[in-house]
Amino acid sequence: MRNFYLEKSLGIDIREKSVCLTLLGKTLYQVDVLASEHIMIQSISKSDQKAESLFLEKVNRFIIEHEAWTENVIVSIPRSNITVQSFKLPSPDRKSVDSMMGFELERHFSSSLDNFYFYNHITTKKQNQYHIVCAAVNKEVAANYLELLKKLNLKTSVLDVSTFANLNLLLVNGEHQDPLSVMLDISSDLIEISILINSNLEFSRTIAIKEHGFQEVFLNPENQSEPHKRISEKVAQTLVEEIKHTLASCRNIDDSKSVDTIYISGGGYLISHLALRVEQESGVQVVKLQSPKSINQTAQSNYAKAFMTTSLSLALRELKKNPIEANLLPENLTTTKKKKVNVKKTVGLALATVFFVIAYMVNQNIQAKNTLTSLNKQLEEIKTQMGPLEKVDLEYEILQKYTKALNKIDKLNPAKFSLLVELSQIIPSDTWLKKIQFKKKNMELNGISKNASQLIPIVEQSSHFQNTHFVGTIITESTGEKFTIKTAIGTKE
Question: What's the CATH number for 1-81+138-173+290-336?
């Protein structure tokens, strides 16, 4: 049975000679990897029509095959087209920082600032100093990529930076707690070295990989132990030397401090070999960047797991909150999207209401079969319509259907409907009700929660419920804690 997705998001990680696409789908309970593909291309330039045509052909095939049209399109372009600068500004408050930013940026850019789109990530304040990481892209370069994607009927909602995308993944996973660490992002022809101090990006640079045969083993899934071993050893040696040079060029690093951890992403099929060799060469622990454990990767068995780290992080931008919400595009160039509502709560309430109607009609044996038939028909219509939809706001369509259903239910039994409204207001956002039953003056709730034990006092605080307790034991599953709660209905004295 095909899953029902409230929202989809497409991450497009464009490199010099490749592009990786990852499509994610969001259900009420989780985020699924729907598809991912790593595609080799030629370096894209406005004058090279052949390279452009190749890009359009291969990406378009992916979009059609996986029905990847969505208003959530998050893109990163080759890191060589992005300038990243880090600096500190002494200032008494944030407002003053904003007013000083233009003067500071002029120090770092030789050409006019009017030629660039900027994103400034302002982080910690220490002793009246703000830490700023500025990413910039030439407007003409950005426009070329946006126009290219427009030819695929894709409008970019976010133009992110691969550096920030990888750092987001690191921070979201909660792995990074080191005073000084290094983050490596490895492409088939380029490596980015980033220095992190207390989770802040201090410095970032790119170097070309000139090792003969690297690209071949980078792309080859077959077990070729000798080529892998030889090339990974040489590249690891280069990496360690470049890390030393990069650290030496950072003025804000105390010479007495040593690197605690090296985080590595990308690397293709060489990733495991490289991680091992870099650890051996440097004597520093090397950790491979992983996708969040909450992401379900079993929905799609055939995908580009060895290449999708950055594109997956990009796709997550519109589905989950990220520490760094970078967007190089000004508001006039981004997709205008409808204001998001709490889909999980709204749809959860709607589904709970449907469950209530079913239970109520069975228990009370009332003559409302036509209403139930109509609701079931509407739910089936939503499921069948989700497949062919391409450029429709899915949330709006879902809520429109459920609104009609809720209006009918409200007319059937307004008293019980008000109880459901009360539940929707007090139940935490990390809790999802799967079934609600009314038994005389009692109500039974079945669902899943990240922290089920918190629910009893929350429900008891309501004036509508009393004598609230668990029925049976709490069962821990991968999606959360499964519970059954029974409560008496009635206004407290």
Answer: 3.30.420.40
